[in-house]
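Researcher: First entry.
Model:
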Amino acid sequence: DSALSCHTAVLEPLNVMAWQERARKSYSSALAICMTNLSGAKAGRNAASPLLANLAFDQSFLDTLWDGLIRWQPSQSDDAATTIASFEAFTSFCDAFAHNLLTVSDDDFLQRHNGVSSGIVAKDVVLKLKLVLSDLYWGRPVVAADLSASGNSLDSALRFQRARLLLSGTKLFNSLHERWSRLYRDVVQFCAEDCWWFSYLASRGSHDNSPLARGQNNSQMNADDPMDSSDDEGDMPRGSTDTDGDALADNFRDAKMARVLTAVPQAMPFNRRVNMFNYLIEADKARTQDESGVMRQIMQAMQDGEEEPEIPGRENVTIRRHELYSDSKRTLNRLGKRLKKRVQVTFINEHGMQEAGIDGGGVFKEFIDDLIKNIFIPAERPNDKDSHPEFFTVTPIQTLNVNGALDESPDTLSNFVFAGRVLGKAIYESILVEPQFCFPFLNKLLGRQNSLDDLKNLDPEYFRNLKSLQHMSSDEIDSLGLTFETEGANSISVELLPNGSNIPVTKKNVIQYIHLVSHQKMNVSGSRQTHAFLSGFRDMIPSHHVRLFSAYELQKIISGDDAVKGIDVQSFMNVVRYSGGYHPTQSIMLWFWQVVAEMTPQQQRLFLKFMTSCSRQPLLGFGSMNPPPCIQQIRLLEDARGRDVAEGAAAGNGHVRLPSSSTCMNLLKLPKYTSKEMLREKLLYAIESAAGFELS
């Protein structure tokens, strides 16, 4: 009785709500302890945990956890116990959701997490993470000692949970951003670009003025660098403890800025990161291209009678225009990292005469532009005297990828090293060039591994066909007679597993087969050539510099913002064919080309994508398109079932069709509209709706 009396005395003061709150905190705490032992900042660390997998793929668990978190607003007025419980719950959600997303395709992700009816809306997760991480990185920064905070005090527990949330939140924040970047050019986006920006970094501030560390400031900067001294590389945010991350961080005088740019660079707007990148390049140029005192030497040389004196400290090269590639490789590739120095070019014309003029920078820009076209774009090689293999091939979406079919001899690989140095030199000198690279290749420049969903940015049709296997029945898969091998470069069979040619693909192992094929095509095929290219590229641009950007952003660094360009309407018109009764002299065709010419550049790109599935002009010109683009006449009217209605039928028997397309045939199906305004209205509606196949 006495014991019962004491127990009752403890229980009585607490009402039901209080007990529920205590139970919630206890559950969050127990769950957080489990998660701490099961997960790390890198997704690969989590794969062997059955408990984490069970939690991550229990949708009701995730939904319930998120439902409580979405209403949570961090506040400094909260007591420590409440804050700790909230941090524990959010950390557990980040670990579980990041693990869940490992197996979710982009299409499934958008279907599950991009609508108001979704249980977990991706945009809401991004905004909540941004709010929390901006405090952990910038407002009240976590430091390395927090992760090893010990003791039973609430203060120690709070510091530790803030550090844990920094790790888990960063992992999920970056996972979501990588997916967002991969989807960037798609019509559907799950959040706007500014959803990623920390409020402190959204606009120019004092950090833009002389942001780089100088002299002893490097060591001072790292003293309080958040999370900088952890021994566990797997538990660190992206770029925090690896050599590249430290090398980048060491360049900035502000420790908080350094950590943001190495761990979550997307938290700063792209244009500001470009400024930071330019600061890094200019700082390096101050060392490699220092010409102080040079003008005095030049003036003295001219007084001594030299008409075109060499500029000391520069690399002087003589290039025959008809031997552009061979001369350039012979004279420049031997320089290695010394190619960072200023290069002074003298051209020899086809008649063997030196071209007039002193290279003050303009000649070199012309030279580098011509050389890059020669290396990367076969159509830009005007003669056969300077022929070389095609080091890069054009993908189905008109972007460039390394030619893995070339041999891997040292002589061949040296060409890729040179190509990497030349592209790096263009970036180093802020020269925008034309080549557009496929995202999987750009990911390699960034040091990132490609996943299955990246395959659609290399070969969309191959991606669709490969993905379709997972939806086939067991009998359908068996009927294909597939084994664990695939066709590699030069049509050579490559086994995906040991003895893979004798392992049949079945319904049970088809997912493994899909991922192995994707990995082979994007990460293994052409890896020697890519590695050689990277070695040359990194002679000019250190790997930690480009880690400021996503693949899409890196392409903008290489070639500028392509969104401002339209298409060459006249060139397109010259190669288009007509069918179904159309010919170029008809009024409707005259209207059509007038409408296209009057479009904005963005509308022209949408039109090209609508017709060909690619918004960029072909690298080799519209004449290289196979099959050639064609405009086909179709009936103006259709009935409710989409069937043709004959011309002259009674009004009300049908409705006016929209233009449609067969992108695999580069075919535009254009109804015979009766006026230019009707054509304009229907065509713009079709291309701007981005419905594509649905309209067809």
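Researcher: Second entry.
Model:
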Amino acid sequence: ENSLGQEAHAAPSVFSYFLPDFSPSGPLYSASLYSPESQVLTSPKLISTLNGLFSFLEFGLVDCYGGFGSSSQFMDPSCPKTKSQRWLNKIKRKISYGSSLYPPAANNAEKIVDELDVLLTNGRLTTYSRRNLIQVVKNSHNFVHGLRNAQKLIITTPEYQSTSVVRRRVGFRVKPSDLPPPTKKYRALVHIMLNGGADSFNIVIPHSGCTHTTSFDAYSKIRGVVAIPKTKLNVINAVNAQPCARYGLNDALPYLYQLYNKKDALFVAGVGTLSEPTDQSNWQKNHFGIVQLFAHNKQQTDSEQVDIFQEYPGTGIGGRILSTLQKNGYETSALSVGGVSEFLDGDIAIAFFDPSTGVQKLHPIPYERDISDIVLRLNGPTEPISGLFGETWARKVHQALSDSRKYKAALDSVKIQTKFPDTYLGNQMKVIAHLIKTRRIRKVEREVFYATSEGWDMHAEVGNGLTELLREVDMALNSFVTEMKNQNIWNNVVIFQASEFGRTTTPNTSGGTDHAWSGNYFLAGGLVKGGQILGKYPDISEGSPLNIDRGRIIPSFPWDSMWKPVAQFLGVRSNEINKFVVPNFRKFGRDHVLLYGKVFKQDCVDNETFYFDHKSNTCSKWATTEKRCKMRDKFGRFVRNY
């Protein structure tokens, strides 16, 4: 799982390890080609896979330096640390569970490389790759070492990693340039996706001061065996006009309860994928042939792209936000600690992190030389007629090595003191907190992070399972917020929690709930105007005008309505949000708008009321007597006209 992302008998969902119709952004997406395994081929997995193969060639099947074998803790001799300790073949046979003892038919560099070319790439090595590999063999200090180096390097090439023909172009890929020092204050979005469809009607629950159809008693009757008892609820005030004056927050979320009461967290109720305003009379007409409601994979795509009519295909909502900010002069960064997702797809390269392994070095064998430079040369630029799968691999290699160098140096330079829970989500949030602390080193001004929590598809025995996962979310949230406050950055961060859909309000016969539509989600941050429930908590009774069948509730608010103020918080201008970030939002009226001032406290998003004074590094309000114009500077900020 940590090395390849495909542990036997441990698929993360019913969809196995990757989706059959997955297409990574870049040349494959542009050509309408699918590459399912690219969904697990993140930068950490790419490096760990290559290191596992390097270890096998060097030591046999053991776990030395990222190997795929079993523990080396009690091996004798232990993993070698110097050239003098290098294992001979007889030691490999004794210790490992198998080794590569391939004997080539010839012993000169040209014939060794040609033989490997036939065996491993069907004779598809480019002239450039062949020439470089021959030189490596010749420069090795003996025949065995040269053979092993050639094997290690050929498996890093696009010729080996794809079955298409690679056409090498003269030159080298462009290296990322150094960024200038940041001039704008930092802001970050942390998106937490609860994969599987969280039962959010057991997270925020009608409590008291309710209309008849949404009372706690009505809730208990409708939810039956999956209902949460009143003794398991922490009471929160709705504040806004909701069907109940007070709701109950599941007591597995005690820290989120604190954030809500401290006015650092809010809920938005009745949210989901919508093509346009919808009710019982038109829900099928509005969505048939456009989306596949209630399907995990399609609804994950719709909730992460937020572009239901594909006006900007191949992009996610997070990616479009970052693309817009970059065009407006911000130094941006897209980082995922939760694997591959369409959420971050856009113009910005995505950096991936595996919390279980950390930032890895390619070929970490201590007595061997660094091979990164030659690996980069072997994955150089290709011609337009070259195979697109090979080009995709080569691009991933370059990004993986660039990210490894960049982020390892940054992360090694700072430490975080907060203790995080050793859980799937806790480890992800720890990495995000650590990365945020390196923001000045990396010279970044706007970042979007993607994290996931798995296992929310509870068709059976939802009670204990939901409690366990909610506690995991709550503990991770507690540690993360504590660390953000320690870094004095909590006001600059917003957390957006989502799930692909909600679940049926009526239980099934297995004590679980099934795929549905509307859900309730939270935002948290130092500038979030918390302590309130926005949106509209739905009537969940059987006769509800939004109940289409079995407690599948039609959303009242589209995902777009939540994303608009979040994009504004990050600095995207209103006209850009409506045109590019949430293009379908124009189909919804003002009653579906979550106004920025309703969601966030006063801050320094440049607009006609406030501006950020970069000289004094403070937030200022336009003077009422000051003559203002609607001119903007090159970064889109309003400028004063004295």
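Model: Note on the second entry: Residues 614-618, 624-642 have pLDDT under 50 and may be disordered.
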